[in-house]
Here is the input.
Amino acid sequence: MDSCVYLDYFCSRQNKAGKDLSEPAKRFFAKVLSKKHQVIISDWVIDELDYTNIFKEDSILICSLKKNKQILSCGYSEEEVTLAKQISVKYYKDVLHVLLAEKMQADVIITRNTPHFYPISKKIKVLIPEHFVC
Here is the structure.
């Protein structure tokens, strides 16, 4: 999952047209929790969220996912960052999300930033939170 979904959840964000993005993120996480899906959270996502200073390890969401053993952790290497930059200098951060999702054999990537993901994700479906169906 891309960091933008966490940002929508934790920051109650809206898009440029004023559409609420937090409710779809909340519904997405409610589906995940109720259906016992696993969420992959990479160190890359944590680094991105730490940069924004909003990631809350003690939040009800993260604690619930941990309690239910629904979080899978995934590290990344400098070699993976280098490979991502070789694939796309401009969108290497998104490429790295895809590389890590492939490494973890994810079924789907959830993001708001689908235009950056579609061209690079050949093996994994890319969906916005509203289109995730359990």
User: Anything to note?
Assistant: The mean pLDDT is 86.
